[in-house]
Design brief:
Blueprint (H helix, E strand, L loop, with lengths): L10 H21 L1 E2 L7 H24 L4 H22 L3 E2 L6 H7 L1 H33 L15 H17 L6 E8 L1 H8 L1 H18 L5 E6 L2 E6 L4 H19 L6 E8 L5 H14 L9
Antiparallel strand pairs: 1-2, 3-5, 3-6, 4-5
Helix pairs in contact: 1-3, 2-3, 3-4, 3-5, 7-8, 8-9
């Protein structure tokens, strides 16, 4: 079993799980008395204790491996309620409570169904996420025929395939009355400093999470490409520049909030309406625009 990298999750999440267990222990010890050893059932302790332990591991792995967001928060909240009820259930094997005291019985029973309802709702949202990702992967699989067009770290398109898609959109735009095509540049300012301070493994994980988040937020017809390092390119077909600006502002805000970037980092987003006759010229024009900072300031906040 691999070790949990706590850097990818807020430390308070793990601490709160420990606090919940300690609160249950405090309640049981203050309101009950320890059972005699001879009436303690080891099999019940083993069964209920192992279930509690596995539940805690599942909750920690879920919030560690998933990108931050509403679905992850729902899984975590429901999991905490399960852990609370299950901990009291385990402690019930060690402590005896007065017959007139119903508080712990309610606390042991009520949070469990509530937690399951929350987790069920989170699972439904997770299914919706997976359908969106699958749709993106189906589009990739339909058009993709060469492994050199896939970035091994993020599983996004690389620049050669991206250029082919831009060429296709330019040809379509010139032959029909389709809406304009917009190219977008996304990069993380001071990513090199992040790599130096946190390590390349942390930097790779950040890029992986960022790519997953952008895929979820983009439309099915859009194309996301990892150009190099922390630089991404996005193709927005049949899109007005004003629409592109609104969409990318939402994406930049979500990247900043969900990834919890350090203060010295920010997400820089620049859009470019394609008027060039070739994809290479259009991408070059976008790069020139980014360098000159002529379009607008970074959409970091």
């Amino acid at each position: 079993m691999r070790m949990i990298n706590l850097r990818y999750m807020s430390n308070w999440r793990v601490l709160l799980i420990a606090v919940v267990v300690l609160v249950c222990l405090l309640l049981s010890s203050q309101l009950g008395v320890v059972k005699p050893y001879e009436i303690v059932d080891p099999l019940d302790i083993l069964g209920e204790g192992s279930t509690l332990f596995l539940t805690i591991l599942i909750v920690i792995f879920t919030v560690t491996d998933r990108p931050r967001g509403n679905v992850t928060n729902l899984f975590y909240s429901g999991g905490l309620l399960l852990i609370f009820s299950m901990t009291l259930d385990v402690l019930d094997e060690f402590f005896r409570y007065p017959d007139a005291l119903r508080l712990l019985s309610w606390l042991e029973s009520f949070p469990l169904p509530v937690g399951l309802i929350i987790i069920s709702f989170a699972a439904a949202q997770w299914r919706r996420e997976n359908k969106m990702l699958s749709r993106q992967l189906m589009v990739r699989e339909k058009n993709l025929r060469s492994h050199q067009w896939v970035d091994p770290l993020t599983s996004l398109y690389t620049t050669p395939y991206f250029i082919k898609l831009v060429e296709r959109e330019i040809a379509l735009q010139n032959s029909t009355d389709a809406e304009s095509t917009v190219l977008v540049s996304v990069n993380f300012k001071n990513f090199a400093q992040y790599n130096h301070e946190m390590g390349t493994k942390a930097g790779d994980e950040l890029l992986h999470q960022a790519s997953e988040l952008m895929v979820l937020l983009l439309r099915p017809q859009d194309c996301l490409c990892r150009e190099h390092s922390d630089h991404f390119l996005i193709l927005l077909p049949q899109t007005r520049l004003s629409q592109a600006d609104r969409l990318m502002k939402v994406i930049a805000q979500n990247l900043n909030s969900e990834l919890e970037l350090p203060n010295y980092m920010s997400v820089e987003v620049h859009t470019h309406r394609v008027e060039e006759l070739s994809a290479v010229d259009a991408i070059t024009a976008l790069h020139t625009q980014v360098e000159e900072m002529t379009h607008y300031a970074p959409l970091a906040n």
